[in-house]
Specification:
Blueprint lengths: L1 E5 L5 E5 L7 E7 L2 E7 L3 H18 L7 H6 L5 E2 L2 H16 L9 H4 L12 H8 L8 E3 L2 E3 L11 H15 L5 E5 L2 E5 L4 E6 L7 E7 L2 E7 L3 E5 L2 E4 L14 E8 L2 H14 L1 H9 L5 E6 L4 E3 L3 E4 L2 E4 L1
Helix pairs in contact: 1-6, 3-7, 6-7, 7-8
Length: 317
C-alpha cells in the first residue's frame, strides 16, 4: 500500500511576543510557496516587497522562457545572467564544495523524476540515466556569464534564502524598523524586539518540539517529513542523495539553522540532513554566528553549544 503526504506549510511556526504597532501584513502565493510579510510600514512599501518577490520569481523560474534559469537549462553555451542569479549559483557551488558534493544544484534531472504529488517513484533505470547529468563542478562562470556544461539546475534549495536577504535589505533601505519575512518557512525577524519561533515536531500534526527566542535573526528548517512517499515499509523523501538518486540515508529528521544570513541558513539546513548528525553538528560548531537544532530519527533533540534550553525554549548564551 502506498501513501503520499505532501506538505506546503511552513516548517517553522511563528508566534509573536506582544503585538506590533501600526503594522501592515499580507499573504500571497509567490515563489511556489505561501509568502507572508509583516512590517511597520505603509501598504505601498509592503506592495513593493511583494513586487520584488515577483521579480525574483520571473528571474529564477525553471519554466518561464525569459528567466535566467530556463535559458541556462536549455543552452550548452555561456549565457549572460543577472548578478543575482550569478550570486546564487556561486553560493550554491560553495556549498557543493563544503558538503563534498552532497549539495548539488544540478540534481534537477533526478529530482524532476520524483513526483510527490502524483505518487510517482521513478525506476532505477530512469534514475541511473539521470544521474549521468548531475555534477555541479561542470558549471563555469566567466564575468557575468554562466555555462552549465550541459547540466540543468534547480535553485529551490537556496534561492528563497537569497530572496529573504534581499527583502531585508529592501526594508532597511526604506527605513522599515520592524517586521517578519516568511517565505514558506524561511523566516527573518528584524527590529528591536524578541520573537518566539516554534520548531515543528517531525511527522506530527503540527505539534511543537520546542521554541526559540530570536532577535534580528533568520531561521530555516529542512525536514524529511516535508514531502515524501510512503511505499510499504520504505520512506522516499525529497532530500536526495546525489550518488544514488534516492532519498538520502540520514539519521536526521530535521535540521533548523539560525543565522544572520538566510541564504546560508537555507543551504545549511539541507546540507546538515545530507551529512547526518555528527558531521552536521561539527560543521555548525565551526560556522561563525550560526546555531542549529537537530531532531534525529528517534525524535531526540540535539543542539549546538551557543544555545541554552530551559522549559522547552531555546535562547542564545
Amino acid at each position: 500500500m502506498k501513501k503520499i503526504l505532501s506538505f506546503n506549510l511552513s516548517l517553522v511556526l511563528l508566534f509573536l511576543c506582544g503585538c506590533v504597532q501600526q503594522e501592515n501584513k499580507d499573504t500571497r502565493f509567490l515563489l511556489n510557496t505561501v509568502v507572508t510579510l509583516t512590517a511597520k510600514c505603509s501598504s505601498k512599501t509592503l506592495d513593493g516587497a511583494f513586487l520584488l518577490c515577483k521579480d525574483y520569481e520571473e528571474l529564477l523560474s525553471r519554466t518561464k522562457p525569459e528567466s535566467d534559469v530556463y535559458k541556462l537549462n536549455n543552452s550548452s553555451d555561456y549565457i549572460e545572467v543577472d548578478r543575482h542569479t550569478k550570486n546564487i549559483i556561486e553560493k550554491a557551488i560553495y556549498y557543493g564544495d563544503l558538503s563534498g558534493g552532497r549539495f548539488d544544484i544540478t540534481i534537477y534531472p533526478v529530482s524532476s523524476l520524483w513526483d510527490f504529488n502524483n505518487q510517482i517513484i521513478p525506476s532505477r533505470d530512469e534514475i541511473s540515466e539521470a544521474l549521468k547529468n548531475v555534477d555541479y563542478q561542470s558549471i563555469k562562470i566567466q564575468d557575468n556569464s554562466v555555462n552549465l556544461g550541459g547540466k540543468q539546475i534547480d535553485l529551490g534549495g537556496i534561492a528563497k534564502g537569497y530572496i529573504a536577504d534581499r527583502l531585508l535589505e529592501y526594508f532597511n533601505t526604506n527605513n522599515v524598523t520592524e517586521g517578519i519575512i516568511d517565505l514558506g518557512g524561511n523566516i527573518v525577524v528584524f527590529g528591536d524586539r524578541d520573537y518566539t519561533v516554534g520548531i515543528k515536531q517531525p511527522f506530527s500534526n503540527g505539534e511543537i518540539a520546542a521554541t526559540i527566542k530570536l532577535r534580528n535573526k533568520t531561521i530555516v528548517t529542512s525536514g524529511v517529513y516535508e514531502r515524501y512517499i510512503q511505499s510499504d515499509s520504505m520512506l522516499y523523501h525529497h532530500i536526495l542523495d546525489t550518488k544514488t538518486g534516492y532519498a538520502c540515508n540520514s539519521d536526521l529528521f530535521s535540521a533548523t539553522i539560525v543565522s544572520d544570513s538566510s541564504i546560508d541558513a537555507d543551504a545549511l539546513s539541507t546540507v546538515c540532513i545530507l551529512l547526518g548528525l555528527e558531521k552536521a553538528k561539527e560543521l555548525i560548531e565551526n560556522t561563525p554566528n550560526t546555531e542549529a537544532v537537530f531532531i534525529d530519527s528517534n525524535q531526540n533533540m540535539h543542539y549546538t553549544s551557543g544555545l541554552t534550553l530551559e522549559n522547552n525554549e531555546f535562547t542564545f548564551k
